[in-house]
Amino acid sequence: MCYSARLWAEYREMCKKLRVDTHWHDFLEVARAREKEFDDSFRCTIKIPDELIAGLVALDGSAAKELALIQRRWKVKEQRQLEQAMNEADVEFQVAEEKLKIKATKTNQKAFEVKQRKLDKAKAALENAAKPPGDSYRIYPFYFAPIIIEDAGKRLFVPARFRILPRTGIEVPNNYNVFNSRRDSLQSARNWIPLFGKQHAIFPFQNFYEWVERDGKSVEIKFSPDGHDGMHAASLYEIYQHPELGQIRSFSMVTDEPPPEVAAAGHDRCPVFLSYDKIDQWLNPAGQTLQQLDELLDHKERAYYSHVLAA
Fold this sequence. Notes:
By secondary structure, this protein is an alpha+beta fold. The chain has a domain at 4-24 and 135-309: SOS response associated peptidase-like (hypothetical protein yedk fold). Helices cover 38% and strands 27% of the residues. It has 8 helices and 13 strands. Strands 2, 4, 5, 6, 7, 10, 11 and 12 form an 8-stranded mixed sheet that branches. It has a 5-stranded antiparallel sheet with strand order 3-1-8-9-13. α4 (62-102) runs antiparallel to α5 (106-130). The radius of gyration is 21 Å and the shape is globular. The model has no long low-confidence stretch (mean pLDDT 93).
């Protein structure tokens, strides 16, 4: 469910519409943490879309300028890393190609095809990294995105990873879906019990994407709420204090039974597109019972979800 979602980089518009302030400190810290992780290990698990940075930089101000500087440094390091990966893949490809020329066996043919795919992937990654940021983008599990939380009476945009990371810091195995929280398990699943009724968020985005079966094949389709510029999904968030990288937030969208048109398209879940007038209640769960909060999720924006095959 919700394998990915599309966001837009017009943060000024988002902040105005949803009455939030950008928490610059946290965005800067995540960008610095990515840089530190790479410098220390030459690998990077912190995935931040270029468009996310570009949208924030466009807000201008001293913090935006500092973020732009961090991003410029990062792009230089990223390019060097991707170039190295491509060169290594090219050497492996040439070795496999030479072996196939010498002896055209099935084993050598398969090895050649594997190395060719690896090289093509490395080239595509380098090309994509060099493209200028667009005005919208997609996030996938493990990517960082902006969510809205309530903190000390203030509504804030903060960065959070799209897939819950428990406060222990121990990742939930990949065969478990913890980037979405089923509404019917909020009060029973161990991942959601510590969060439901305590740490609520809103995730704003434009569209969501799903894989469905069509004629015996899996195809990806894009769902869009007709008559709405975007969606704001009820979500839960967690905080992990990394010993070196600092505070890392992660989040999961709440999903519910699908409306008829989503079910007819082949999918069995849908994000809870919370009614705009219920956002305050969701972001401030204190003093409400779990039953009241569950009933709050019945209040959804009226929307018809049209769909098309993803490009």
